[in-house]
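[scheduler] slot 2 assigned
[scheduler] job type: sequence-to-structure, two independent chains
[scheduler] chain ordering preserved from manifest
[runner] begin chain α
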Amino acid sequence: MGSFSTGSSETQISTKEFMEQMNFQLAQAYVEKFLQTVRDKCFDKCITKPGSSVSGTESSCISRCMDRYFEATRIVSRAFNASR
């Protein structure tokens, strides 16, 4: 198995460990981007007149909007994993 040198440091990690770290970082970045996208889309859809507070109707809309995005993501993830 190969190793990955971190430069001038004597520390070496295996290719598998490196790939695991990269996959974890990519997953974190994906989650952050997904949440930002959902927040932006739901805000644009539900907050028609931004003010100093969020109304009950706007809050409910945002909650439903985010729930739909999360459910859609679960469905797509299940379908993707089932096809593998």
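[runner] end chain α
[runner] begin chain β
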Amino acid sequence: MKIILASASERRQELLTRLVKKFDIMVSDFDESQIIFEGSNDKYVQSIALGKALDIKNKINENAIIVSADTVVTLDGKILGKPKDEEDAFNMIKSLQGRSHFVYSGVVVINTALNKTIKDSLCTEVTFSQISDKEIREYIKTKEPLDKAGAYGIQGIGGVFVKEIKGCYYNVVGLPLNKVKTMLEQIK
């Protein structure tokens, strides 16, 4: 059966190739702002991932397995999304330095033929080392942090700031591979 990844993320696309040889990519038009955060990070990321997956389900007229995900970074109970600009990126990274934060990913897999949906989420704790303002500014010049939740990419240059990780590395990248593998096995 056709597999569709509901994501424009190059990182998610690259990671899914480790599990599935062939899949289509469809970008969801789901408006994430309509999901209200009600205190549960797990429920929040699952709801956004579900919205993306259902958007794609409503656009296709064939049987398929749809894979969708959403990832957020949290610090002190607040969600750090993608930075608005370079100053916002600086402030985010500065707030993370020398501290631990949490990365939550919600994953949804839908089998349209069976009308079956599986939702799950995962949390990984990441600790940053101390970082100087100069290092943060140099990192921002690379433009890498500007399109990433929490203003860093662990798989890129931002990985040098990571002192410790507890949990799934691929969750922090944006697609927890072991979790997705299990969900794909369960959905068939």
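[runner] end chain β
[qc] chain β: The chain has a mean pLDDT of 96.
[scheduler] slot 2 released
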